[in-house]
Amino acid sequence: MTDFLLACNWKLFCSPLQERAMLANLPEPKVPTIIFPSLLSLGSKHPGYQFGAQRMDLIDQGAHTGAIGAYALAELCEWVLLGHSECRARGDNKIAEKAHQARSLGLKVMLCVSSQELDTPNVDAVAYEPLWAIGTGKVATPELIAEAIAGIRSQVSQGTKLLYGGSVTPANIASIAQNADGALVGSASASLEGLQKLFTALTG
Ligand code: PEP
């Protein structure tokens, strides 16, 4: 098994029932894999996989109707994705504070950024995702990925995983593995067939 990290952002592509069926039938992971299902599907476990939440609120336990806090997520999963551009576009902010709170409660943080500017360097993984590459079919060049990853690497501690995200597919993931420690994959990961194809592209 290579140590390339495959992070799967299922967004809201599937219904909870579809996600439940997928989670019950996950293939054997061929690389370290994190699934970020919708919040409604958190809580399942599967050998070899880690799970994460797609977002969180900056709140403590208490009277916060409709919110989701780190203390709750920490019982259900290992990771939280912070700063995804689709969340930022809906007003998500205070990313550094959220990262601090999440880590202090035992969650690992994957920070999403669209440039080399980090909200905080104190995270477990950073996913570099140019805005124009997310969900567009346009993938960044190897040169751009290498340059961004090197720039981000100079700001974080050793051991922080650096991923590329943006229109990653089975056809391009092997080339992305040349320049990044992992990939954050959206639509191409949101089916069992897609997941299997990504594993095959990475490991043969
Ligand atoms: C993402 O959700 O972070 C993403 C990169 O999506 P896609 O792979 O569909 O472009």
What is the CATH superfamily? Aldolase class I
Which structural category fits the helices and strands?
A: alpha/beta
User: What are the distinct ligands in this entry?
Assistant: phosphoenolpyruvate
Number of helices: 7
Q: Please state the average pLDDT score.
A: 97
Shape: globular
Mind describing the biggest β-sheet?
A: 8 strands, parallel, barrel
Radius of gyration: 16 Å
> Helix fraction?
25-40%
Order of helices and strands: EHEEHEHHEEHEHEH
Number of domains: 1
Q: How does CATH name the architecture?
A: Alpha-Beta Barrel
How would you characterize the overall build of this protein?
The chain has helices spanning 16-24, 70-76, 85-88, 95-104, 142-153, 173-176, 192-203, and strands spanning 5-9, 33-36, 49-53, 79-82, 108-113, 125-128, 161-165, 182-185. The chain is an alpha/beta fold and 204 residues long. It has a single domain, classed as TIM Barrel (Alpha-Beta Barrel), CATH 3.20.20. Strand 1 (5-9), helix 1 and strand 2 (33-36) form a beta-alpha-beta unit. The structure holds phosphoenolpyruvate. The site of phosphoenolpyruvate has 14 residues, from strand 8.
